[in-house]
Write a structure and sequence with these properties.
elongated; about 30% helix; single chain; alpha+beta
Length: about 775
């Protein structure tokens, strides 16, 4: 106490009998206003029993002045020793921390009795504790007093917590909402988490600690976070293995310390999952694994390993009855002997509890989820089991979507593979080396190469927008139309114009589908390059429909991109007309038709990042080796987009297998033409039957040119894999195949030619027309 004179004297009935000058200054009351009145009229509650000795009582009082305003005052109540039944109320010594606590502290203690409170001295020993704190820490009040707070509360990290409280004492700054973990006293109990706030007492006389048990709220938050993370992150990829990795990444760390996902191997390939119970011989693929810590010894099997689940184990039981379960990982559990590798990994990781749940959908088993916790007191409870079952159901649905996607695109890739032509055989004047690196989803890319009359070769490459079965089917339709139009011997620009009309009609059919069909909302667009190589002219005439132009590598080392007028994409109603460009391709040149997955160089230089252009700078290699060089230089293409490349090396057509004659525009021209043809076919050693048919064809075609065409007339025979006969004149009239009546004297020329040949057609140019026929050679 700081004064020998009491502030007031109170008798046994609690009535003030003596009033001091210091009391008048504090309470702002005169003697007449105070003496004779009860002391409780000036405080809010009775005096507590927390004195420093057996014969003294002291405690906090909330004092009010005459106007009712609270007065901050530390007091001590002591019984008087003069034989009277009276008490002396003294002003307490500020140096006594035990009796000098501000009344605000006790306001908190009494107003918030549901919270745990501890009052600590500067040495962080417990001065006072309420019943809630005793219950939370599992101690009684008499055993808590004068003990270090770390021992009373059994903190998991006492040093870290004490450093925090010392900082509060040193800085005088309060700390709120700091979460700490309390280790259970009983080894079988679960750990608890409390939210701690610490408030310094005035003049660094101690610290008040408030603790609220947040174990259940934190566990609920952990479960909700796990569910939210799985819903947000799992299922973004339509890939089975990636979906499994998304799941373990969403659960570790946080909900579990170790997560393993195993998937039925057939599901990874897109096949239908087996029904439960899962057979003992059905293999599972370890698709994903994650641990918060070293991985070396914690894995029973590496990711990608495929094997059946040993039985009987909790894993096999889950796959049998489709019920999740928790298992305490006791080293003496008999089921561990059935799976020694997994038992070794469990011991190495220190895992103490397992939660395993089936990844199942509509009774079909897709896989197995296994979650482990390492903490000695961090067990899975029934709420965790419910959450695991829910997140396993969500993952199973995502896996089934990915499986269906994989199956659909496996079918699409197979369809595309069957619709693409086999490697085109090399011809007399051109050889091929195609390269196809398919994507994982299947696509509508295609290439083609086929012969045309006159030793010419048609080359095409293109892409249909989109992916999957629909794109592959549209590709097959477009490729069929190209073959049909090519049989008419159209120029590239004319062929693309008619092909565009066909694609527009296909797009209209797609737009007319029922509104419930998702294909209706997908526009049909395609790009294409169509080129015709003529070895007799050593040129390549090409046209583009919204597709990159081919690269042309010349024997001298120059690699160029021809300036082809690019028309609109196929399926477009508007846009500029298609146009052609003629590119010289002498002997030894290489044409490179490519999809858009390759870079599109513009200038004549060599870009080191362009694998195609770099490879084409060295043409002194076999074409297959050049193609492989391009493949080895490709980067970041696997699984993303189709990579398609068609390399074609031109060669000189043998001059002794071509014969050309200019014919006079006279009636004798037909006989002269037959004579030339007979002599040449004899030199070429063409069979007698084929030679006789060729003479008739030549005679009929020249006769028609004389009758309906215009000078000059030219006859050309080309012996390649087939025998081509061409008659060109300057007339523009279009001949047609007629079926003459019995009495008609003419009109059978083209009919005879069609019967004697396996193919015929008409090709127009600015200088007239050419009628041609093709005959097979034995």
């Amino acid at each position: 106490m700081n004064a020998a004179t009491p502030l007031m004297v109170v008798d046994g009935a609690g009535v003030v009998v003596r009033w001091s000058r210091r009391a008048r200054e504090i309470w702002l009351r005169s003697d007449s206003e105070a003496v004779g009145r009860t002391a409780l009229a000036m405080v809010t509650r009775d005096i507590g029993d927390s004195g420093s000795g057996e014969d003294s009582r002291s405690g906090p009082l909330v004092i009010h002045d005459v106007d009712g305003n609270p007065v901050d005052l530390r007091v001590q109540v002591v019984p008087l020793s003069d034989g009277l039944v009276a008490w002396g109320v003294y002003e307490a010594d500020p140096g006594d921390a035990r009796h000098g606590m501000p009344t605000a502290v006790f306001d908190i203690l009494h107003a918030n009795t549901h919270e745990a409170f501890l009052v600590l001295d500067p040495a962080l020993r417990v001065l006072s504790v309420n019943e809630a704190a005793c219950s939370l820490c599992g101690v009684t009040a008499d055993k808590a007093l004068d003990r270090p707070v770390g021992e009373v509360c059994r903190l998991s990290r006492p040093q870290e917590f004490e450093d925090l409280l010392r900082a509060v004492l040193a800085d005088g700054t309060s700390v709120t909402d700091h979460t700490v973990r309390l280790d259970p006293g009983d080894g079988s109990s679960r750990e608890r988490f409390v939210n701690v706030s610490a408030f310094p007492l005035r003049d660094a006389r101690g610290v008040v600690v408030s603790m609220t048990d947040v174990t259940q709220s934190l566990r609920s938050k952990r479960r909700l976070d796990a569910l939210g993370s799985v819903r947000e992150r799992v299922g973004r990829s339509l890939d089975v293995v990636t979906t499994c990795q998304e799941l373990v990444d969403a659960l570790v760390p946080g909900f579990a310390d170790i997560a393993v996902v195993e998937v039925v191997d057939a599901v990874v390939r897109g096949e239908d999952p087996p029904l439960s119970p899962l057979g003992r011989d059905i293999p599972l693929r370890r698709a994903a694994f994650r641990i918060e810590g070293p991985v070396d010894r914690a894995q029973a099997h590496p990711v990608g390993d495929v094997r059946a689940v040993p039985t009987p184990t909790p894993y096999s039981q889950v796959l049998s009855d489709l019920r999740p379960r928790t298992v305490t990982l006791d080293s003496g559990a008999p089921w561990l002997d059935a799976d020694p590798e997994r038992a070794r990994a469990i011991r190495a990781s220190g895992a103490r509890v397992l939660l395993t749940a089936p990844l199942a959908l509509r009774g079909a088993v897709l896989g197995l989820l296994s979650l482990y916790r390492v903490g000695p007191h961090d067990a899975f409870d029934e709420n965790d089991l419910t959450v695991a079952d829910e997140l396993a159901s969500h993952t199973a649905l995502s896996l089934d979507n990915a499986r269906r996607y994989t199956r659909e695109h496996t079918v699409a890739a197979a369809l595309q593979r069957h619709l693409l032509p086999p490697e085109p055989p090399s011809r007399t004047a051109i050889e091929f080396a195609p390269l196809h690196v398919p994507s994982d989803v299947g696509a509508g890319t295609w290439y083609d190469a086929f012969g045309l009359p006159g030793a010419r070769t048609a080359l095409a490459i293109g892409e249909v927008g989109g992916s999957g079965i629909d794109a592959a089917t549209a590709m097959g339709q477009i490729r069929t139309v190209i073959h049909s139009l090519a049989a008419l011997d159209l120029d590239p620009d004319e062929l693309l114009a008619r092909l565009n009309d066909a694609v527009v009609r296909l797009a209209q059919e797609r737009a007319a589908l029922p509104s419930s069909d998702p294909l209706r909302g997908q526009p049909l667009r395609a790009g294409c390059v169509y080129a015709i190589h003529d070895p007799l002219q050593e040129t390549c005439v090409m046209a583009s429909a919204g597709h990159p132009a081919p690269l042309v590598a010349h024997p001298g080392g120059l690699v160029e991109v021809p300036q082809i007028p690019t028309g609109p994409l196929l399926g477009s109603r508007d846009g500029p007309p298609f146009a052609t460009a003629s590119v010289p391709v002498p002997h030894g040149s290489v044409l490179a038709l490519r999809t858009t997955s390759f870079p599109a160089p513009d200038g004549p230089g060599t870009d080191p990042a362009d694998p195609l252009r770099v490879a084409l700078t060295r043409l002194d290699r076999p074409l297959a080796e050049l193609r492989d060089d391009v493949l080895y230089r490709l980067r970041d293409t696997a699984g993303l987009r189709d990579v398609l490349l068609l390399l074609a090396r031109t060669r000189t057509f043998p001059p002794d297998r071509v014969a050309t004659w200019s014919l006079d525009f006279e009636p004798t021209a037909a006989a002269t033409a037959r004579h030339h043809a007979r002599d040449r076919l004899r030199v070429w050693r063409v069979g007698e039957e084929t030679a006789y048919a060729t003479e008739l064809i030549v005679s009929e075609l020249v006769t028609n040119a004389l009758r309906y065409g215009a000078a000059p007339i030219r006859l050309r025979l080309v012996k390649d894999t087939t025998l081509t006969c061409e008659v060109r004149d300057a007339g523009g009239a279009a001949p047609r195949l007629r079926h003459a009546r019995t009495a008609d004297e003419g009109g059978r020329g083209l009919f005879i030619c069609a019967q004697l040949s396996h193919n015929w057609g008409i090709r127009y140019s600015a200088r007239g027309k050419t009628i041609w026929t093709e005959q097979t050679l034995p």
